[in-house]
Amino acid sequence: MMKPSSSFYRSIKQIKSLSSSSSSSFGDIVHGSSLAILRHYHPVPAAIIGVPISDIDDDSQPFSIINRYRIPGLWDTWRNKNTSGKILRPGMILLKSYVNILGQTGIVDACEKLGVGPGGFYVPSNRSGHKLQRHITSFGRNWDPVTGYNNRYISDGSEPPAIPHGFINLINSAIEVAQAHMDELPSINPDSCLVSFYSTCDRLDLHQDHDESADSLKKGLPVASVSIGDAVEFWYGDTRDENKLGKVLLESGDILIYGGKSRLIFHGIKRILHGTIPPNLEKAVMIRPGHLNLSLKQF
């Protein structure tokens, strides 16, 4: 399958220097962490996080002067500590503004680097051969609407990179917050991250996420969906009948989690609200109009 033109990739990229209204420390953090932690084995200097090198020696591993064991701690700065949770139905909760602007910027940067690399963004087809209205790529396990989960990208046969530790830590912390509001939500160990980019005219038809393993579905292991960029109108419910569906606005930085009794809900994106990207995010990244979504699951 042919990959889309490089102009798509150039549209989602980190500005090399932030606007004059942004502090230099903010820029240092973005370029010192999000650029370096694209894949979980990328190093972060111990000096950045103030951990003595002597504290991280491990004779069982190749010697490194880099403190890669404390990488997840850096990503704690990506989440808002005082997020609000709204229970939409049993097993389904919306964490408003959970990912702060620093985290959103880092996520865009990581997805841009994935998108321009092997197995980058492409427009998938469904089983009938019709093109879907979005660009996709994956971390961890690759997913395609025709073949489901695969070890390799259908676009070029390459293997997907591991999910960055920071993505996993961010989602695990969000699920812990969600569990404080509802006791029927299981924990997960995310091993699949589907990255989707919706242009302003794109849509997501009503569907169920049921390509995961029978064990995962039986346990109701939740899906964690991260929203970046323009807001979207998200519809959900137990049926395809639009008259019986609920709807909620997903804005940049929100994390929607649905599992347990809500694991197999029908859901879709009916509308993308052009021009709703947060101004401070727009200053930090050159992301084209549209909606970037990360969907993390345990197969």
Q: Could you characterize the architecture of this molecule?
A:
Fe cation binds at residues 207, 209, 267. One of its GO terms (biological process) is oxidative RNA demethylation. Its cofactor is Fe(2+). GO terms for molecular function: broad specificity oxidative DNA demethylase activity; ferrous iron binding; oxidative RNA demethylase activity. Belongs to the alkB family. The chain has 299 residues and is α+β, with helices and mostly antiparallel strands. It has one domain: Sandwich (Jelly Rolls), CATH 2.60.120.590. The chain contains eight helices and 15 strands. The protein has helices at 6-11, 24-34, 46-49, 71-74, 101-116, 165-181, 214-219, 279-284; strands spanning 12-14, 84-89, 92-96, 135-140, 142-144, 148-150, 192-198, 204-207, 223-229, 231-237, 246-250, 255-258, 266-273, 285-287, 291-297. It has a seven-stranded antiparallel beta sheet with strand order 2-3-12-9-15-7-4, covered by helices on one side. The longest helix has 17 residues, at 165-181. It is globular, with a radius of gyration of 19 Å. The relative contact order is 0.18. The model is unreliable at 1-11, 13-58 and 66-72 (pLDDT under 50).
